[in-house]
Structures are given as C-alpha cells and as structure tokens.
Amino acid sequence: MAKLDFSPIADTTRRAEIVALLKRAILTGQLEPGQKLNELRIAEQMRVSRAPLREAMRELVQEGILTSIPYAGTFVIDVTAKDIDDAYSLNKVLDEFAIERTWPLRDQRFFDELDRRHEAVKQATRDLNTTRQIETALQLHGLIHEWAGNSVLLETWQRLTSRLQMYFALHQRARKEPVPAEDLHETYVRLLKGADMRAAQRHASEHIDGDFEQLLAYAQGLEQRTSKGAGANRAVAARNRPDDG
Questions:
Q1: pLDDT 10s digits, 143-184
Q2: Which of 5, 58, 71, 218 is the most buried (most CB within 10 A)?
Q3: Which residues of 80-119 are buried (b: 16+ CB within 10 A; e: fewer)?
C-alpha cells in the first residue's frame, strides 16, 4: 500500500480543495479500493477541522466513489469485475446513442470545443498528471453527451463518470503507467469530425473495449485482496450495531 501523505490546506473552509485532494489520493492509489478513511489522520495532515472533511467525504459518497458503512466508517468503494463490466457495457450503449443524437447537431462550435478538450487531455498526458489526464479524458468523452440535447442521457452519463474515474485509474495502475499514450484519442476525435457516423460509433465501442481484459484481471486480483478486509468491516459493524431489543 502506498504511503498516505496529505499536504496542509491553508483555508479550512475550502471544501472543494479537500474533495480534490481526496479524489487525487483515490485516483493515484494512495487510497485503495476498500480502504477505510482515517478522519483524524487526514484532518491532521491537511490541517483542517473534521467538519469540512466530513462534508467533503459526504460529497464523494454522493458521487459514488466513497461509501459509508454504519458503525464502521467511510471507505473507498470496492471494485469488482462485475462493476467494471456493468459500467463499461452501459458506457458503450450511452456513447452509441449520444453520437447518433449529436451527429446532426455538430457545428463549428462543437469542433472547436472537441479540439480544446482534446488538447487538454494531451497536455495532462505530457505532464504525466494522472488525475488531470483522467478528468480531461472524461470531459472529452462527455462532450457528445452534453451536445446530444437529451437531459436524461446527460444525467445518466454524469452519474457514471465517478465510477469511470476509478476504473480509468485502475486501468493505468494495471498497465503500470501514470498516463496512457498521448495519441490515444486521435482517431476518436478525427472520426467525430468526419462524415461516417457508424465508423465513429464503432470506434467509440472499440475504444471502451481497449485492454478491457487486463483491467478485469486486475480487478479480480483486487477482489481477492480486499475480500478478507470487507468481511472484517462487516464484522465490526455487526459488533457495534445497537441492540434493537
């Protein structure tokens, strides 16, 4: 397990910064799937009170990358192979629909924004900034969902993105690389600018499938490592639960 080391935060009211630091720790592997968050230790390292820290943790619970277990504490979500399969299969369906809805709505503003987001991904890649690369990659993929003009689609995509952040980060750890190749999205962007909608949809699906088996194998290894810890957490919760009688 990587050594946990948070930097102090000067302004204790800045919940967004606490959220960002916690998220970075999760995406870079300082906080691993299934790991319990030690509130006291984190608050001391950040030099913040526990109240804003707890608010930040609740926000990440709502996003879906932390989970709160009564009488046990707050944990990074466990990741299973089924979780990944469920999320990626849904992502493929959403992308196909989003491209179809976006296709006739594309204009110069869309192409300019596509290029801007693509350049942001490439810059984060050049900087070897894992967290920023994941965030910008999801923003790039999110453009078709934003442009499609379907509010339910967009809400579904937004709920999925926090999970995808975790899975993208795990994928990079499985590859033992901080970021993927800089040219990873070149074909995706080119096809979204092109005239063949079906080709763009096919590539989007293939893009999601890339190295999928490697990620599943990595997740299965995590399941084996964390299953004992999860059982211990449930036992603690059972022992600490108040007597209903």
A1: 999 999 999 999 999 989 988 988 888 888 888 888 999 999
A2: 218
A3: bbebbeebbeebbebbbbbbebbbeeeeeebeeebeebbe
